[in-house]
Queue: 3 jobs
Job 1
Amino acid sequence: MSGFLPDEPSAEVRVSPNFGPRRETADMIVLHYTGMETGAGAEAWLCDPASEVSSHYLVHEDGRIVQMVRESDRAWHAGKSSWFGRSDINSCSVGIEVVNPGHSLGYRNFPKRQIDALIGLCKGIVQRHSIPAQRVLAHSDVAPGRKIDPGERFPWKALFEAGVGHLVEAAPVRRGAVLKAGDASAEVEALQSMLALYGYGVEISGAFDRQTEIVVEAFQRHFRQRKVDGVADGSTIRTLERLLGSVRAVPSK
């Protein structure tokens, strides 16, 4: 493909060869950080056939938007992942890379102009594909443990206040009873059930195993950013309950 007209009018086009046909229609957005030293390096990598990775969009720190794959095509951004039991997240999502060096290279706050541009981009995608608020997700949501981006510094609140994504006010962190690795109880089973009901890939066993700990940490990284430790304290559980209480029913495919 030599080029295409951008789906997002404000986007520049730089074609990546790393894409294929969708097997499903897009009904979610997955947000990433680039995790590389520079935005230019990340853009080049996503367009390099040797990388075998891509995303639909990249948002630079100065607010420039680059589209690399048409929204109608399947970009290779999510890797091994799942949500509501669906494992081909690449086929049902639009992937957006947000330039940030990430945890291993000097993780920093995301500039306001970058987030403003991202919000506008997401609004356009949501409108074009009728994407529900609760399906604007982090890479760490769909690939917990394997990925931690866009991380606990990502300003989900700014997106939500602008009408993008799903969020509730996180319950205060206080001392009290917790559920943690090694526990086994009906309370753990209830926690796992709530996480699975929201969409996370977790087995409902009643045992607080390593996978449960990883999923709790992913939940906190998105919805209770003040403390990310994989321990289900009262704040984590109450925030999850609030989130489920405010979700609009969306049939899984």
Job 2
Amino acid sequence: MTRRRVPSAEEVRLAALPRLPFTSGSFDAAVANFVINHVGDPRAAVDELRRVVRPAGRIAVTIWPDPPPEAQSLWGRVFDAAGVDRPTAPTVDADRDFPRTPDGLGGLLDAAGLADVRCETITWAHRTDPEAWWSGPANGISKPGLVLVAQPPDVLARIRAVYGEVTAPYRDADGLLALPTAALLASATVPLAPPG
């Protein structure tokens, strides 16, 4: 998919944090957009980003905050209103976890030895077609998708009806959903190597 979308890319590699197949200092910048909140060892992931970025290079990281904004908590409200049990989501081991707050995310980057750490909360209304917002999970995408595809047809029909009720207050005059959401955006600089 990347080759098709960015045909001018010199090289495309499939990799997963916390081990990237690049030499140290290979990049001017690294971006982890909603990645760090999905790895088993967030600190190791940030350490690896730091390793592959050159001194004075930049790192930017986004995550969903806790408590979750309305767009991220919507599916939980739908399942609760429909009376659907949800399996407990896997969590990061307590000794590797961090608070999903500006101080928590900033502290994670700071603990990795990065400099000029900044973290801010960005808010917006996510505008989307209600059918598009339904179709991803209905096709098994993300945690809500795992719940939906495990339901028998009668329960799925009940969830679909509740989805319409829960999302109705978010519909604009054009029929699109305007879901309030937020993300934490942290950025930092890889420090220059100490003289010596």
Job 3
Amino acid sequence: MPLIEQYRQEMKETVEKIVQKVSSLTEDVIRWKPSADEWSIMEILCHVEEVIGYWTRELVRVIQVGGSEWGRGLNDEARLAAVREADSRTVSEVIHGIEKAAKFADEQLGRLRDDQLSLEAPHRNPKFGVKPMTFLVEHFLTEHLAGHLRQIERNLVKHEAAQSK
């Protein structure tokens, strides 16, 4: 199976797991914050929605131009705004947005070939250095989404523990 197809499958499966996991939760659970420093599940979902589109567009852009500086920092305004706006959005709207973003990403990845993923380009953050586009997909899409699924699961465990006190 081509590498790009593996990435598409991983992303699809993880998004399906996220949507399935949160679809059965009450709004109170989704909006509950484990602590002031941690994201609620709703904030995680808003971030997931934004990040899928951002990294997909970034990947396609870098490949189309044959390599250029890529990436963003933790203080990127679009990243921060997605989380900041969580309280003003409905759960169904965000879930629909995640599904739409995942469909867009799948379509975009489906247009790429494995050889394009070997293109190397410098990340804006010097700690990452020059990386192939496989790194962008693995680190910022597939692994990133899987990490947020685990974060949702941790929030649920913390919520359950808080309710049993």
